[in-house]
Design goal:
Two copies of one chain form a homodimer. Helix content of chain A is about 65%, strand content about 5%. By secondary structure, chain A is mainly alpha-helical. In chain A, strands 1-3-2 form a three-stranded mixed β-sheet. In chain A, a hairpin with a 2-residue loop joins strand 2 and strand 3. The longest helix of chain A is centred in the N-terminal third of the chain and has 34 residues. At the A-B interface, helix 1 and helix 2 of A face helix 1 and helix 2 of B.
Chain lengths: ~500, ~500
Amino acid sequence: MTTASQPNSATFNLLCSHAREVALLRSTQSLLEWDERTKLPPAGGEYRAEQVSYLAGLIHRRQTEPIVGEYLHQLLEGPLATDRHSDTGAVIHNLKRDYDQKTKLPQSLVEELARTSVLGQQVWAQARKANDFSQFQPLLQRTIELKQQEAAALGFDDVPYDALLDQFEPGAKTAEVRQVLVELREQLVPLVAAIVDGGRRPNMDILRRHYPTATQEKFGLQVATAIGFDFNAGRLDVTHHPFCSTSGPCDVRLTTHYYEDFFPSALFSILHEAGHGLYEQGLRADQVGLPTGEAVSLGVHESQSRLWENLVGRSQAFWQHFYPQLQQSFGEALSDVPLEDFYFAINDVRPSLIRIEADEATYNLHIMVRFELEQALLMDELRVADLPGAWHEKYQQYLGVRSPTDADGVMQDVHWSAGLVGYFPTYTLGNIYASQLFERAEQELGDFATMFRRGDFRPLRDWLRIHVHEPGRRYAPSQLVQRVTGEGISHEPLMRHLRHKFGLLYGLV
Amino acid sequence: MTTASQPNSATFNLLCSHAREVALLRSTQSLLEWDERTKLPPAGGEYRAEQVSYLAGLIHRRQTEPIVGEYLHQLLEGPLATDRHSDTGAVIHNLKRDYDQKTKLPQSLVEELARTSVLGQQVWAQARKANDFSQFQPLLQRTIELKQQEAAALGFDDVPYDALLDQFEPGAKTAEVRQVLVELREQLVPLVAAIVDGGRRPNMDILRRHYPTATQEKFGLQVATAIGFDFNAGRLDVTHHPFCSTSGPCDVRLTTHYYEDFFPSALFSILHEAGHGLYEQGLRADQVGLPTGEAVSLGVHESQSRLWENLVGRSQAFWQHFYPQLQQSFGEALSDVPLEDFYFAINDVRPSLIRIEADEATYNLHIMVRFELEQALLMDELRVADLPGAWHEKYQQYLGVRSPTDADGVMQDVHWSAGLVGYFPTYTLGNIYASQLFERAEQELGDFATMFRRGDFRPLRDWLRIHVHEPGRRYAPSQLVQRVTGEGISHEPLMRHLRHKFGLLYGLV
């Protein structure tokens, strides 16, 4: 260590201590939110909102303390920041990014965004229940205006959408993402059409027999453990909408919901959330509370959940391993069902109205609709009043379906009401990254089908841990993908996967 | 409102806002602790300790902010403080009390107390496991010295024990408590001896049959609901040591533990914790976060739990109502058991070694031992090295039993290792208050046995709500009892209850 770096290193330690203190508060807030969704007594909601909002204010005040700016100013010119992909450099540059994002927004805008988000969700819920878009329209209008102001305050090179997207997918550019998604769409639409036109259909009734909750839970725990989720440092609980939440480095919590008359829902949610959970459990323990110990983006997070849910969990090899156990667990429902019928049923492709119920292939078309519409709104190329019509048009165009209601149409998702604009494309980016990473991992590790058939998921999990989880935020998402796969973001591996899998299932090859 | 009171009222609002913010943090800390004991994954303990201790520091810093002292200084001379039992006066005087207690202790002492408490519990657990008091002795020695320093810093009129007792039972004086407890002991010892000498014994085997956990839980929820606990604003979970915890005004959480081969444990824990829970649920909603919306003392809290557990839950009339349902729920275990045998078995009086397993009558003798020994330690009238011997002597004298080990003797409780000196007498004060309040309530409301036999607990619960819960901290515990019963603290109602109940059961009348 040179003498010049001495003071720098002391400042770096102060910066890290500060970040770790904020992380203690953030993880506490995360527990409050997990508890709210899983355990909180019905009457406890109002005070819980006060606790969460007080903690959010505390966290924001600490994150924007001028001393952080001073530490960063001092460190950015110093040797610890030179390599932005080193442990120290990644901490400094990412904290700088976070600090700038937090301090660029005027306090009044932060507060109005928060208020509009809370109010927006309430109004959305009512409007959705009443199937009356006009009730929601003024709030959505205001939300779009505020997001335009937010984008302006954050700044952008090309389009305002860049600034919003960047909050969820650091470094991603609208133009690049659009290109990848359009290419994907152009190939997906004919694939889905071919599947529909082909006329083959799995027998879905076998999934709607009686599947007792307790057995589903036991099987879900077993599968999550098999793919490597550590229940010594995690839990599984029940909620309405499945999610994964982290309250500490050894405290990662999955949730799911059980339907006794529909098997896939709970299990694939568990696999999906366990994929998120494996990412969290794979972060470096020695970097807790620092950007080097944090997930890099929503897209990369989703890549992990989709990879385990779809590329692993809906693969034939996976069920060649697990199906005998499944049949044993649910003898009544499955004893007369051949593996092939089960495998086909859990891979049913069918254009539908609701995003969160969509299959692996059509899912991304639901995202395209939202991605294109929210950009148009932000650019004032589409009026909020015209949104329901535009929604129907795009659904007709990409999926060939039309929702009879706005409730199950333009108002089906909570995101826009909560001010989450620029969030949707990260779902498809997740699918795209997942296929890119999976393909690359298989090139390095050898045939996955062989491994999965014998229940060996360890090589894949370890590979993801080393290449995706442990880097934390040291590389931007696209850099990470480039580094690991040697290629930029590309729709091709995903399309190869979908064409191969559904080509076989639907007899298109 | 006079013009003079205007600034006072503004200051009062600032003081209340401050207290309410601290309450948001304290209730959050409470949730972290509840979660730690009920849900936290095994590996999550270390980080949880960091979260809790960070929050504790934050709370302490906020509680001791000089601005609070300034608000209080300004308000104490003003009209809002004149009546210390009014809503405003109670807030001001209690916050003054809390502020003084927090600020009187030098930071170095606070930190050493905290360290010694954590270390003490670890060393105690090991020493207890090894049944080796000498391992624990130096830590206990240091704890007593620190408690002496703490008492000196807090200040006291008569004896140092006053200062420590006052932290748990505000306003209680050692001399007064001692007098009541000695009178109780002098009457209890011969009563217990008479029961033992009488030779009657219930058949305890009937409680050790097979009681399935799920049925126990269902029955426990039903009973807690029947006595008025609101599960819309509360929960019941499983832990090792039952407790009641409050994370918000409408979020009161009970815990219990189930033994399939011993019925009373879970149910009476549920009744006990629900008694605590009813107190918390009975606090005034409009005073959340203020002393007027807080429980007044450990003793009064314990009076509520003991009242529902023992005076209600172990009464004959209670089981005249519930026993048919119980027999129906646990047909296999209880179909051949008459109510009288069941009632006798759950009221077995037997001198034993372990406090937390003791019955309604002998329990208070366990407390006497600890109350007398901890005073002697604090006054340097007993050396820590001589504590195990003194323990045996007193157990022989009051209960006629001698523990074969120190593990189940002087090291059976966690309290001293955690620095909780002055805490034990609140358990017996709870029993004493419970009987005083219960007797008074019955004078006002009419025969409880008649009500309980028809499952009507509402009049008692409402009476406690009005007279005990809703006052919050407006009166010191002894003032509260005086106000409600018209009498000072007295052992007589408790002795009347015990003599009557056990006189009938053991044929002493």
